[in-house]
Design goal:
The complex is a heterodimer of chains A (282) and B (266).
Chain A (H helix, E strand, L loop, with lengths): L7 H6 L6 E4 L9 H9 L5 E7 L1 H8 L3 E9 L8 H9 L3 E4 L2 H12 L4 E4 L7 H4 L4 E4 L6 E6 L3 E11 L5 E2 L8 H7 E11 L5 H4 L12 E6 L17 H11 L2 H12 L3 H11 L1
Parallel strand pairs in A: 1-2, 1-8, 2-3, 3-4, 8-10, 10-11
Antiparallel strand pairs in A: 5-7, 6-7, 8-9
Chain B lengths: L19 H10 L9 E4 L2 H12 L6 E3 L4 E4 L10 E5 L2 H10 L2 E5 L3 E2 L5 E2 L2 E2 L7 E2 L6 H7 L2 E5 L19 H7 L1 H5 L3 E6 L2 E4 L8 E5 L5 H6 L6 E8 L5 H11 L5 H4 L4
Parallel strand pairs in B: 1-2, 1-5, 5-10, 10-11, 13-14
Antiparallel strand pairs in B: 2-3, 3-4, 6-7, 8-9, 11-12, 12-13
Helix pairs in contact in B: 1-2, 2-8
Classes of the chains: A alpha/beta (282), B alpha/beta (266).
């Protein structure tokens, strides 16, 4: 069977400027942060990013990697407003499509099902239609109702983080919420999965029941072993959110000098040096 | 060490001792009255106290989330882990519930207007906001699919505006302009603030003043609202909590008194 093990750098080498990239997780929870940090170190830019956004979106915005952002919200959960997102919106540095949370899921589902759209009520009457002027409505062929025709959100690539995976890309979540990582993988031409630990296939079920095997290998192009890779977002039950570090991140983001210092301290080096520096502060 | 046994009279839960925060929490609880076996989704502290109180008293069939991805049974304190889990509620299931209509959310809008449009997204021009907020979150889907109520901790003309900057939760005028499908399940129920209880029960669904909290006049509520309010035939005083309600709030649901930091006495 094809082994798909690769490094963060290998993943980024397969991404191109201008791509549409979906990022799994939710807010500041189970984000593939080591892959995002690798993107920050690359010259890939001009991305369309699709996410239930958290610091993944914030970091990519701060690094000027994002041309267009598609989201239902961007939040750090325990800190409601993502500071880089707020700054980018207020300075007009990024164009956005702001969907209702359920619509975003619906667009990924349409893409996963190879449908051009799926009908929904969400969005009717709201300024989602103002934010996304291309959004059209569709009349039911069975009645008179008029629905939003949520367009498929097809992704060139999806980045997701799992608690465990095998080398062929079978991915397992051990927390309580799968979020929408399976949908992101199904909507993408290529999915890159980072994981806390790569285990032999025969050990997957030692960690959790078959229904915890959320990601199927046929969707996965690359598997990256990234212990602590979701830091500083949560990756339950392996670890919770690093609230102290998130606070430091948010405070630094509010001030250009402090942010430059934060970048120097944590983001300028390798993933290994990042992990060493945050481990030292824990 | 000698064990100290409390010998005083039981704590006094006389309704006259109710604080503004407690009056607000009970007014929030009433929003879910008669809803039956649906998911009550309170956003922020005071609505959360209200929803737990509603289930502990008038509406035992309500479903409540633990704030993460589980459905919790029983009555438990805000900030604590629930004693008993009765179901699984990942975000995907919440979206299914929203579309099914079996949910009643109470959200905290940054702006709310005369016909119930609510803004959580941005202040100013959407394309280049003066102040960017969270985003649409689930407000468009919530309002078009199932009952929605609102909690406003600081009733002021900055919140209650003639027209919201960004329509996230839809109101009766925008829904009507959109067409009958948008109106089909639109059901804006109750608006609870630190001054009053309001609803959209008037003939044209304009925001209507139902009751003012003890000591608050109709004029004060009008002054704190950025557009002319419709008045109920008889604007009454918001009912005080009962002694059993006060006991539940003070001893079981919010024993640390977090509510008093969120709603300060006037």
């Amino acid at each position: 069977m094809t082994e798909k093990l690769m490094t963060e750098a290998d993943v980024v080498a397969r991404l191109r400027s201008g791509m549409t990239v979906g990022i799994g997780g939710w807010g500041s929870r189970r984000k593939p942060m080591s892959l995002v940090r690798a993107l920050l170190r690359s010259d890939v830019t001009d991305l369309t990013v699709v996410a239930y956004g958290g610091p993944d979106v914030g970091l990519l915005l701060a690094a000027g990697k994002v041309r267009h952002l598609v989201y239902g919200f961007v939040s750090l959960d325990s800190i409601p407003l993502e500071p880089h997102f707020r700054a980018a919106r207020e300075s007009g540095a990024v164009t956005v499509t702001e969907y209702d949370e359920g619509m975003l899921q619906w667009g990924l589902r349409a893409a996963a099902n190879r449908l051009p759209f799926l009908p929904c009520r969400a969005g009717l009457g709201s300024d989602v239609l103002r934010s996304a002027p291309d959004l059209k409505t569709v009349r039911s062929p069975y009645g008179d109702e008029e629905f939003v025709a949520m367009p498929a959100i097809r992704l060139d690539a999806a980045l997701i983080h799992m608690n465990r995976a095998d080398a062929t890309g079978n991915g397992q979540y051990l927390g309580i919420d799968p979020y929408f990582d399976d949908l992101f993988s199904q909507a993408a031409d290529a999915t890159y999965l980072s994981t806390e630990k790569v285990v032999p296939t025969e050990q997957l079920l030692a960690g959790g029941p078959p229904q915890s095997l959320l990601i199927q290998r046929w969707h996965v192009t690359g598997v990256v072993e990234a212990p602590h890779g979701a830091h500083f977002t949560s990756c339950e039950p392996d670890y919770g959110r690093d609230e102290a570090f998130q606070k430091r991140y948010a405070q630094a983001a509010g001030d250009p000098a402090a942010w430059a210092e934060f970048e120097r301290e944590y983001l300028a080096g390798t993933e290994q040096s990042y992990q060493e520096s945050v481990g030292a502060t824990a | 060490m000698t064990e100290v046994i409390a010998t005083g009279a039981p704590a006094d839960h006389d309704p006259d001792t109710a604080t503004l925060a407690e009056i607000c929490a009970v007014a929030c609880a009433r929003a879910w009255e008669g809803d039956g076996e649906i998911l009550a989704s309170p956003i922020t502290l005071i609505p959360s106290i209200g929803a737990r109180l509603a289930r502990a008293t008038t509406d035992p069939d309500l479903l409540l989330s633990d704030g993460e991805a589980s459905l919790a049974a029983g009555t438990w304190a805000v900030g604590d882990e629930p004693p008993l889990i009765e179901g699984w509620l990942p975000y995907r299931t919440v979206f299914d519930l929203v579309a099914s209509g079996r949910r009643h959310v109470m959200m905290g809008p940054v702006q709310l207007d005369r016909y119930g449009n609510a803004n959580l997204s941005a202040i100013g021009d959407f394309a280049r906001p003066k102040r960017a907020l969270l985003g649409m979150r689930g407000a468009p889907g919530n309002t078009v699919n199932h009952p929605t109520s609102y909690w406003v901790g600081r009733h002021s003309p900055r919140v209650f505006v003639e027209k919201v900057d960004v329509v996230c939760g839809i109101g009766y005028d925008t829904a009507k302009a959109s067409g009958p499908t948008a109106l089909e399940f639109l059901d804006l129920r109750r608006v609870v603030t630190n001054l009053a209880v309001l609803d959209f029960g008037s003939a044209d669904h304009a925001l209507r003043l139902v009751s003012t909290h003890p000591g608050v006049t109709v004029e004060e509520v009008q002054e704190a609202t950025g557009f002319p309010l419709t008045l109920a035939d008889e604007v009454v005083t918001t009912p005080l909590p009962t002694a059993p309600e006060l006991q539940l709030i003070r001893e079981v649901i919010d024993p640390k008194g977090l509510r008093e930091r969120e709603v300060r006495p006037r």
